[in-house]
Amino acid sequence: MKVLLLGAPGAGKGTQAQFITQAFNIPQISTGDMLRAAIKAGTPLGLEAKKIMDEGGLVRDDIIIGMVQERIAQADCANGFLFDGFPRTLAQAQAMQDAGVLLDAVVEIDVPDETIVERMDGRRVHLASGRTYHIKHNPPKVDGKDDITGEDLIQRDDDKAETVKKRLNVYHEQTEVLIGFYGNLQGDNAPKYHKINGTQSVDAVKNDVLSALGK
Ligand code: AP5
Ligand code: ZN
């Protein structure tokens, strides 16, 4: 099963990703998480990516495409994977089509911009796993600590209101076009396209997403 989660920054992709990967036993491929790991490790990629991410821009297509090609060639991706935050430009989507990486389903999580800003403000993240919480809507069991490891939760550097606005603009300018790209693919190999109302509770979105995917 190869699934793409599509949606604006803060739409809830990371939150829903954990339910899909558990239900289908497939790995999550989050390019955002991979870049944050590179920053933490201080690699050359991390050094280059940090400035761009802090400003809310997109990292270069060729870097991202190479990183994902390498990741999906690994053994744990043999039975499929969940793309979270990739592809996010037409060039990235086209590169996957050209490489014969055909998706079974695209799940779009639809949330208006006004809701996004409030969500980002309350978001807390466990950096090592990518697990995501919200101080009001999806709080951890212990304040400031990850449910599973008990380690500290952090606020992402790009969750400042000003950067969130920039990321939303970038989404509308460069990523939203993928809704049409995947929605208009024709033929036997075309992915099934599902649009989900992402303004509901985390649980209600989860139910809609899993039932759209046949679980
Ligand atoms: P990335 O990490 O992919 O960030 P993003 O797409 O901006 O998405 P987010 O992770 O911010 O949001 P999300 O949809 O996962 O929402 P979440 O579940 O956390 O990318 C970061 C940066 O890396 C980019 O800006 C770019 O610079 C670079 N990058 C990454 N991929 C790239 C690529 N392919 N090409 C080029 N550059 C790339 O939820 C948000 C909050 O809301 C949480 O607090 C959560 O608890 C809460 N929440 C979730 N669902 C609900 C709900 N139903 N009700 C109430 N609250 C909810
Ligand atoms: Zn995310």
Automatic annotation (TrEMBL):
- Which segments cross the bilayer? none
Question: Its Gene Ontology biological processes?
Answer: AMP salvage
Pathway, according to UniProt? Answer: Purine metabolism; AMP biosynthesis via salvage pathway; AMP from ADP: step 1/1
Keywords assigned by UniProt, alphabetized? ATP-binding, Cytoplasm, Kinase, Nucleotide biosynthesis, Nucleotide-binding, Transferase
Q: Spell out the reaction equation it catalyses.
A: AMP + ATP = 2 ADP
Q: Taking the first listed entry, what is the main subcellular location of this protein, grouped into a coarse class? A: cytoplasm
GO CC annotation: cytoplasm
Q: What is this protein called?
A: Adenylate kinase
Which species is this UniProt entry from?
Alysiella filiformis DSM 16848
Q: Name the gene for this chain.
A: adk
